[in-house]
């Protein structure tokens, strides 16, 4: 029933034994110990589980782990390209901007927000406020009222 | 040295959160971990004939399956901890798993424990349940009517309590008043929707007899107590850890069966057991908010003086009385009926009612949004009836700023306030007169603009413990801190409250760093572990900064007092001759002779040369119990453009002027206001938990329940006035709930104002386009002006 798959996660090859029905979000969290990817719903509305697959933002709860085989996955831990940064060093410009603009409170939606925003800025380096708000359609936040998330994304766009 | 108090420094908690390195409860993984899943009732109300788990027990990976019958003698029932007095409160037993009856869709029936999440979930499908369906009742008013299905044999007629508030002589006021307005108001049921669902991971060590439970909690000490009650394990054998908590909004205050069940399973099996709800489970099981049916009347003079307020409220409690549920529509609601106004005669009757729905408890604002909404809505109706500007009516009735402390008719005493100051500031930012002129012009062009102005105050900073006891709250409401100084001069503050997004790891570090004249990086704030932190009562009711922050301040002052003794000894001076300057105690007149905080920290901890009679070490504990609640206040203004063809509401501007006293970190204060306002606009515009008449939750997933999205919501313009509170040493008031308290009536009043020329006087929230459109059609049909 289970099968061994190999994924490229944050630049390294990772192998996991997975059931065909296993969702990528759960495999990342439970088997690869990348718990920065969060699960906030069961209907693909909240976006807390957003990761990049081959550079595009994808809700990892909508992807079977087996479908991701052979693809490059980036999670919040790998976004800065140095294994997760932390402690203020080596942050991605969006991580830095979310920190500076108070773009997070409880932090649960934040990894997904940042991954979605990174995809937006890759496609559209200078988005308008309306474009940013539209791009966040699939990411819910209950704490910030979105205002400082938008400000953070604008700041990161300016900083690039 | 520049003070950190008042500075919008970046948050200390963010680096781990933005890099995915924080640990939330579901991230906890232990050797030998088992996973639990709970089978839940699909009926709202039914007799339970059979729960057959034989097949599930044999399923691959399943370790054990528990039913209500298995745990009924081993676990106590789920307690209700707010026994509001003088209201004949009836709290029937709430079994952790249903035994003979289910009372809402989501009521637990059985728990499967298995080697993997998937195995546990798979086995739920193998459990065979036989129900004998009974009629459901979801409306709290209908549940009190004759012939309504009864949930609990101990509660005939489903009325859990009848609570009354009275001040002045409302009967006389209404009999004599020339003007009376009446309105039936519905407070839509809401789903709190913290982004992190609830979870619990229990690990029992049979060797030590110690149980450790990681749980999504706003109040780990309360959860330790409730777990002790439910599991029958003594409190000192239980360690509760609330690690990173992904929002709460009240929904992570109560004790739930789930954490007791995983604790029980771990105690039985000697292995750690974790349970995590998914979102649709969260919507059925985690507490809901609001759910009132209210009949409200206001009376006054023809020139705008309010003389009386009367209410009759049916407050839905759901199937069981949740932890704080009885206190929410009573103490936190009825006592606030005067709002910021001098209403001399008040009378309210509140019925708490069991219905076959998910339990209802505290949700951001908890009782106070409902009080503010009904009051503000009634003032606009009253103003319209007497033909007076609603802002002028408010101004005429606001408590004057020189009257504080002020005791309102409901008997509570407000600490401090300058309500006119906040109103003036908001009106200045907005230019009210100009908008009224634009509105008149727009109406001629067939455009319907509206403005809502709310002046509010709220009861926060819960609160004096003596009052907590007097109103039946099953605990204290002081809070606590240990400030511990290490030999190298760095500091940890261990606090009794449990922030979960509000930023106190930063603001409390600012308090401590200021006190000691050290960089904020040298202070760490520790919360959420009952093993490390002193007894506290948690984060809710906008209390953390006012109460726990004050404990931090007092503990830091005690540390500094001791450091001063040591400094005097080392400097061979008397304490009276020392002064504190730039992080040093110096001798007055010889500023070069001094001892820095770091030097004193080292000396205290090595104790080579201590003053006679002074113990080694440098730390202090403080339990701070405030002398009164705090009463934050402010004015919110919203303008809207309503499309009368589609019923769509477009928000033009939203202005929030809030007074929470002096601000430790203005960036964080504004963040609290933004989030609260948007959450309130969700309630006003689009959020509502809907049950069908069989008690099925129709808004059971995020596809159906309309949590606000970025593209739907406006920018909030914030400003502040500063009126210190006299009841705590920081002068602070609290700002966590102002947004949900003020924004709901502000938006609804703006829409009703916009549609006034069409004859629309009231629309039940949420103001979805369909409801707004229907209200317009109805008003037109009823002869409203075309």
What is the fold named in CATH at topology level of the largest domain in chain A? Ubiquitin-like (UB roll)
Q: How many β-strands of chain B, per DSSP?
A: 28
* Uncertain residue ranges of chain A: 83-88
- CATH topology-level name of the largest domain in chain B: Aldehyde Oxidoreductase, domain 4
Domain count of chain A: 2
Mean pLDDT over the residues of chain A: 94
Q: Summarize the biggest pleated sheet of chain B.
A: 7 strands, mixed
Question: What is the count of helical runs of chain A?
Answer: 5
Identify the CATH class of the largest domain in chain B.
Answer: Alpha Beta
For the terminal residues of chain B, how far apart are their CA atoms? Answer: 66 Å
Chain pair with largest interface: A-B, 62 and 58 residues
Q: Indicate the overall shape of chain A.
A: globular
Strand order of the largest sheet of chain A: 2-1-5-3-4
Question: What is the CATH class designation of the largest domain in chain A?
Answer: Alpha Beta
Fourth-tier CATH superfamily name of the largest domain in chain A: Beta-grasp domain
**Mean pLDDT, all residues of chain B:** 97
Low-confidence stretches of chain B: none
Task: Explain this structure.
The complex is a heterodimer of chains A (160) and B (786). Chain A has 160 residues and is an alpha+beta fold. Chain A has five helices and five strands. Chain A has two domains: 3-76, Beta-grasp domain (Ubiquitin-like (UB roll)), CATH 3.10.20.30; 93-159, DNA polymerase, domain 1 (Orthogonal Bundle). Chain A has a five-stranded mixed sheet with strand order 2-1-5-3-4, sandwiched between helices. In chain A, helix 2 (93-100) packs across helix 5. The radius of gyration of chain A is 15 Å and the shape is globular. Chain B is an alpha+beta fold. Chain B folds into three domains: 14-134 and 196-246 and 252-285, Alpha-Beta Complex (Aldehyde Oxidoreductase, domain 3), CATH 3.90.1170.50; 292-462 and 628-781, 2-Layer Sandwich (Aldehyde Oxidoreductase, domain 4); 478-624, Aldehyde Oxidoreductase, domain 4 (2-Layer Sandwich), CATH 3.30.365. Helix content of chain B is 28%, strand content 23%. In chain B, strands 3-5-1-12-9-10-11 form a seven-stranded mixed sheet, with helices on both faces. In chain B, a hairpin with a 2-residue loop joins strand 22 (578-581) and strand 23. The radius of gyration of chain B is 28 Å and the shape is globular. The interface between A and B is large, with 62 and 58 residues.
